[in-house]
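// run 5 | inverse folding | seed 20
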């Protein structure tokens, strides 16, 4: 291993004995080989450390740290402090990087003068294919979507190491939810520092979805909403959006919904945001509304009437509004499952 590798891969691990072998293999078999792999065993109580050590005997590009459990955020920041690479690549101990991931990301970062680069992912669970997930490719679309939802697949990102001189992973008030919010906070901090962002519209990572993730992600929604509000309040034109968004969530008034759409449209035009992400944001807000009715759908249609939209998504939104479905109702959850399978 070179003294200063091109890439430092950081992989926190906690009780990951079932999957970490495949995760490590996917890194060691990259077509771009100039990297170090930093694995922090965060106090695992299974055979995770034993499996990690079996790889160090075969490959000197690995750096292994084992210590008591400190949590994900501490493990990430600790890894970054000892990283020597020009770029830092994230990796989770249960995911699989495709062979050309590093090669493609370094090329994309350099060719587009970016500070952070993600990619599309293929989601799977227990060897079952759950489909592809794509993210916005350019800087302004990423930052617009970031107002309300995550714009990156965290374990698929590569970041210039110099970025971490200005930002770092931060632990939230609810530390048990850090696994689902620490990345969103980091992207927001990077956006506020005007770092340039991009995503490759190509699958470079297989992302494992666990059965317990759905309920935990639901609990994390309020945490990410708080981060989003903070982000909005610091942007030019964002305070009015944050104000009307807060009003709408607390009292889903049709007039407030119309004004919120209007302020988002102004922001969209100012920042030249792609139509599809404007549509996605409005749909996201409606899905989280405390109540719905057909008028909300008509207002949504008014603001998106000249924009290209997928038929399935439009039918889903219409049915939700026609049936006055609350987002926690059993019928809403059933329709959501059907929609996600289409």
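// decoded
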């Amino acid at each position: 291993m070179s003294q200063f590798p091109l890439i430092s891969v950081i992989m926190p691990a906690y009780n990951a004995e079932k999957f970490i072998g495949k995760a490590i293999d996917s890194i060691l078999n990259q077509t771009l080989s100039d990297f170090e792999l930093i694995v922090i065993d965060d106090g695992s109580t299974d055979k995770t450390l034993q499996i990690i050590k079996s790889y160090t005997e075969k490959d000197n590009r690995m750096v292994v740290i084992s210590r008591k459990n400190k949590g994900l955020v501490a493990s990430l920041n600790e890894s970054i402090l000892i990283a020597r690479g020009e770029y830092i690549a994230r990796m989770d101990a249960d995911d699989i990087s495709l062979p050309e991931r590093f090669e493609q990301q370094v090329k994309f970062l350099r060719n587009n003068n970016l500070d952070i680069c993600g990619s599309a992912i293929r989601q799977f669970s227990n060897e079952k294919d759950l489909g592809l997930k794509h993210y916005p490719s350019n800087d302004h679309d990423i930052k617009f979507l970031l107002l309300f939802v995550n714009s990156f697949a965290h374990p698929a990102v590569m970041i210039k190491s110099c970025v971490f001189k200005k930002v770092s992973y931060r632990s939230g008030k609810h530390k048990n939810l850090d696994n689902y919010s620490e990345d969103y906070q980091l992207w927001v901090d990077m956006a506020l520092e005007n770092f340039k962002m991009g995503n490759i519209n190509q699958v470079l990572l297989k992302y494992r979805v666990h059965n317990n993730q759905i309920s935990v992600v639901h609990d994390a929604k309020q945490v990410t909403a708080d981060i989003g509000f903070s982000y909005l309040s610091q942007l030019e034109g964002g305070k009015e959006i944050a104000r009307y968004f807060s009003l709408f969530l607390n009292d889903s008034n049709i007039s407030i919904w119309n004004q919120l759409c209007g302020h988002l449209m102004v922001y969209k035009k100012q920042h030249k945001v792609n139509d599809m992400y404007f549509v996605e944001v409005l749909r996201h807000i409606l899905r989280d509304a405390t109540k719905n009715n057909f008028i909300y759908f008509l207002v949504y249609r008014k603001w998106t009437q000249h924009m290209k939209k997928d038929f399935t998504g439009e039918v889903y939104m219409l049915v939700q509004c026609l049936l006055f479905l609350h987002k926690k109702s059993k019928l809403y959850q059933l329709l959501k499952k059907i929609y996600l399978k289409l």
